[in-house]
Amino acid sequence: MLPGTVLGIRVRDGVVLASEKRLTYNGFVLSRNVRKLYPITNRIGVGFAGLVGDMQFIVKLLKFEAKNYEIQHYRGIRVRSLAKVLSLILYSYKLTPLFNEIIVGGVDDKGPQLYVLDPLGSLIEDKYAALGSGGPIALGIVESSYREDLGLDEARDLAVKALKEAIERDAVSGDGIDLLVITGEGYKTEEIIFAEKA
To answer: Which superfamily does CATH assign the domain made up of 5-192 to?
Structure first.
């Protein structure tokens, strides 16, 4: 399992992506303020668990591909299309894999969508997912409370609750939560910083 925790929840009005902010290496905390969520277009975002250098490389490639598509086709790329492009990129690196587990979420003319990808490019569509070392804990919380009729605010609160539980029990996850809430109108970001314990 790759270090960190990222999760995504798809509801009827949009998609919520959430991640924690800790970067660890070999048992040490290197940073308490790492971005693991990135908007690729105004309506598509990605979230990562794994190595930060690989995350940044993938984000640059995806932004390039999304802009290139927009220039060639005079419209934004669809969520599934961007996820398929990412799947092909990851598969092309199968001999020297990029060590990330990835969630792609967004909204297009086909509605809200959420996709999960492993380091070799497997592409799976789902309603919710949690990845990384804290993923199994977060997934248990999301699974116990998820409903088909969840509103966007409820999904946001559920994502925060699930990540807080994962952070409590996973040593390589922590130091706050980043949120990326995506609707047909665009995306909003939010950051939750935890008060340090005395």
So the answer is: Aminohydrolase, N-terminal nucleophile (Ntn) domain (3.60.20.10)
